Structures
1.
Amino acid sequence: MLSERKKKILCAVVDSYIDKAEPVSSKDIQQDYLTDCSSATIRNELSTLESMGYLVQPHVSAGRIPSEKAFRFYVNELLSESDLTSAEAELIEQYFARKIGSIEDVMTAVTRILSELTHYTSVVVKEDMSDTITAIKLLDLSNGKLLVVIVTDSRVLKDGMVDLPDDFDENMIAQAQRWLNKIFCGKHVSEFINFNYPFALVNDEFSQYNSLFKKIIDVLKKVSLLNGMDVEMYGENKIFEHDVVNAQKFLTQMEDKVQIAEILTDDGGADGSVTVKIGSAEHAPEGCAVVTTRVNLGDNVSSAIGVIGPVRMNYKKVLSVLDKISSILIDLVGNKGV
């Protein structure tokens, strides 16, 4: 548990580091943030915060920089609301006052304005789960692997495989396929993805294979989710404004759009939810933070919108811009539909 003074000092270090990207000294804090506190007192508190894992001292003579633990505490406990300027709010409204005829137009508008205002890489992931399942196929690859495929009214979703038990023969595969088709054919993909595995629906003769059925369904869910995603990204080069040293690594990570989509949508999927992931320990790209929010774009169509940038991103600005954009999207979808 941090004292109020430690919280103020930690907040000052994080705010200063976000603003200047330089180690923060006790003198900086005393002059710019806590004028009523002596430098000696601040030095002692900085030392304690360092021993607690919140701060790092790059060099003996240098000031401190926040650790990922500090940024997490900052987001959870210390972050205050930041209002957009009237010019920023007006710019967002102007973007969406233009004619928007489709979900794709929405995605393009969101990525442009989000990156422009935050100066980070913006990402929008559309999850269209409106397809109707027409068939589920289980294909024995004869190497101990089973290929699981979903056929919908508009596409084929595949690339999912599970390991087969040695005693799971062709007859069992056929029966399993019939069972899956009986339950899921005619349902939307969204219903399938939100489906909880019903152990009671499996015949007694298959009870010993409950874990296999669970694996098959989990694989099918993942395949459905990834195939239903459309990813739009903008402003990857914004990283050069913040971290030239690690820019190449960042750009390489941004090339894997499937991984980026998974990161943005691994949040439970509730409309209006806001998620902040900091560093690789929280499944963000290494050295990065990811801030996302969820917005419903219509029946069985959801979107995750967010930004990816360095851990020292301006969380106040990002969250304020996301809040404004998501509120406009909610009104847009509710009043006009897209």
2.
Amino acid sequence: MLEIRLAQQGETALQKELWKRCFGDSDRYIDFYYANRYKEDETVVLLHDGEISAMLTMLPVRTVLPDNRSFKTAMLYAIATNPDYQNLGFATKLMDFSNQYLRIQKTELSVLTPANGHLFDYYRKLGYQDGFDIREAQLLRASIESLAGDQACQCTVSAITPHEYNRRRNKQLDGRLCIAYSDEDIAYQKKLSQLSGVDIYAVDIDEIQGCFVVERITSDKVLIKEILLPEELMNVALKQISQQLSAQEYVLRTPYYLGKHLGGRLRPFGMIRVDRKIDWVITSEELGYLGLAFD
């Protein structure tokens, strides 16, 4: 017997067990998520014979168009099915329920970031289309230090509040198709970054106000999950970042339209589904930027 519904009180221990089995995250990280981001009314569970066997989270965000119109959007996150019950259609049933629920809530769009490349075809069958690419490069410290840059530029890097980060982020993405987050979402990302020993940051280069998010993977490796500032100032910013956040390797994610000169690869990152009739269609010539997927 299957039952699909919103999560209820007293179920977090069972959800944590499923999360760990599906994603392999540490207890420390799982406990952190449930202490800082979990909400029952944003979590959908599927029960098989009374046992939580699949679940997903619906994070409220907004899709902003180049003309600055915005639409109520849900980011489907942490889609998990007990390995013992995979290939039985549980995830599809869970997502169908979630999409019906979101329509009732007058949510116009939903987005998600597939955990691996093989899942893109699966989500396409459920009505999703490619919508958000990123550029990803792996840079050694020595290669960053050798980048050409304007030595006359005054560049400073400092930790920043979620509200100020969001203000800078929205300004840098103005006029582009993108996913916009609440200050609460950015506050959660700040805690995630701090959990790994770093933070979210402002980068100021003369009069230009940019921002970036970092998570430390190991003592010698950091992930710059998002960096937003004009292309011509990227080298200057990276050189300053490498001086203040020491590592041997930097994994850099940028919007698809930034950082081409740094090498790396352009890859699909997020997908989008239109759940209500709106007068806008995403095209391959007008891909958007999602950025923070809390992955």
3.
Amino acid sequence: MKVKIPVVGGICQSTQGRDKDRYYLIKTVYPDGAVGLVDGNFKKLAEPKRKNLKHIRLLPEKAEAIAAKLADGRQVFDSEVYSALKTYNNPPQETNKE
């Protein structure tokens, strides 16, 4: 299923730029067709990365708990965002045991 409309709390992957293949959480959707992205590590909630929609790939997954907090105006911590994206940005390493 291909997602075409960005939503707050949605997860996306950068397809262009020096951050290519990095995963982000959408914090803000701007009216001009851009989004504000955070990852809890390099891009904090205080200063989201502004990126054009054509430079990201939207995933069908969504961080429901963080999206609810952002919608209610409650405080969200960078550590929560980092934990939500940990499985995407830091895939488990395979070990060869023989």
4.
Amino acid sequence: MFTNFVADYLMNYNFDEIIDRSSSHCVKVERMSHIWNRTDLLPLWVADMDFKTPPCIIAAIQKRLQHEVLGYTCPHKGYYDSIVRWIQKRYGMKANKEYIQFVPGVVPGICAAVNALTEKGDKIIIQPPVYHPFKQVIEGTGRVLVSNPLVFDGSRFSMDFAHLQTVVEDCKLLILCHPHNPGGMVWTQNELETLAQICARHGITVISDEIHADLTLPPNKHLPFAMIGETAQQISATFMAPSKTFNIPGLAASHIIVYNHALRKKLFHYIRHNDLDMGNVFAYIAVEAAYNHGDEWLAQLLAYLQANIDFVDHALQNRMPKIKAIRPQASYLVFLDCRDLGFATQEELDHFFVDKAKLALNSGALFGDEGKGFMRMNIASPKAVLEQALNQLEKAYNTLN
């Protein structure tokens, strides 16, 4: 009822528009004072975008507001249908309503999976450098963190299966970041097949965080872990969301897709009996609007992000060659290899970006020891903002010996 409107598919979206977010209580701006004790930095850290949320989503929310009761809200048929159509259209992934469970964010969902599927003291594998809440969830729930570090060849991180075989014994879960954050890799079919075989052989359930899947940059293709084959499908839970894709993380709307009946029953039961299955009044209609009407907006966004990546990479190569951009195959997050700058510690590198370049980026150490010497840069901003950031960085760069 609340999303029955016609989207403007012929619209050209303006990603060059600079939007002042300082009055919106946004984390990217307001948390700088807590983290860096200053407010004069250019914020290129938190993984949300500085672009307007798609008009189709705003229109759906505005239409819902015409009904002036903002009460408890439940998922409806249109919500489930939009997810089913989206994953079928983009990935050939078939599912039905029974396979899908709403959760208020991927990280809360992963925390629920850890609690539902393991006991305190159980071992859980992650592959650093990787999205830091994985580690927080494992340690915060009293589980044991097992590290299977990725291998970096100078341009791409890859999985170390030989090492994985040495640590896999008695582990219960592996949390997969797919596509990878912060490295930006889209894992290959061969990598995923090998991972599935090892995990299946050792009775390990794979929690596949695929929140950046829709931000895969052409010509790369995202292959959901559950689409690798029957084995992968039966040992995994897939976590997805439109939040990164359509810049609606503040609506806290994510979903889990599980094919294995026993796994689904155990995980969904935990979520529903711990009151984690209800979204806010705008969550479901935002998902429905995004997946039903957001294709053209997303296509234009991906083209703009690709141009921004090209711009940053070219500027670094030509003006600051000791900083190397790892070109992401997915997402708007660029991992910067800064090891050639010669800083002795990560703290010195962080100081350089904050106090010399006046840029707020994520420290590579946040993602594990394997991220030391790196910085993560969010390039989902108007090009003019990136120009300013690179000019500030170049000025600081030129002060180095």
